[in-house]
Amino acid sequence: MPVVRGADGLSLAALEQAIGDVARRAREGKLAPGDLAGGTFTITNGGVFGSLLSTADPQPAAQSGILGMHKIEERPVGAPGPGRDPSDDVRRASRTTIASSTASRR
Question: Which of 2, 60, 75, 105 is buried most deeply by CB count within 10 Å?
């Protein structure tokens, strides 16, 4: 994954611009090896591809973890009132899965 350096010190607008710049350079094939090194934590959005769940595999030498965001979809959920059987009240709700993977250091 390409690295946005100093992300912790950027405003949201500056972070958006930096991500856009990295994405543009990736599409154009202009990333350098240094653009892929030195990352610590990755956020990925597989939901744009329809992914409902995945388990990321952080690279131990490069990343401490990956946070995976997945597709938001309406699903049936139980919403019982106090003291009621959950099957009595089912409704639709927007749900997603967020998965976190961490690298184990040996």
Answer: 2
The CA distance from 58 to 9, in Å, is: 24
- Residue spans of beta strands (DSSP E) within the chain: 41-45, 65-69, 73-78, 90-95, 98-102
Reading the block at residue 11, the tokens are: 């405003």
Mean pLDDT, residues 72-77: 88
- Cα torsion angle, 35, 37, 40, 42, sign: positive
CA distance 47 to 22: 20
CB 99 within 8 A of CB 54: yes
Angle at 98 between CA 44 and CA 70, to 5 degrees: 60
pLDDT of residue 13: 94
Give yes or no for a contact between 31 and 7, defined as CB atoms under 8 angstroms apart: no
CB proximity list for 18: less than 8 A, separation 6 or greater: 4, 7, 10
Range 69-91 average pLDDT: 78
User: How confident is the model at residue 84, as a pLDDT?
Assistant: 72
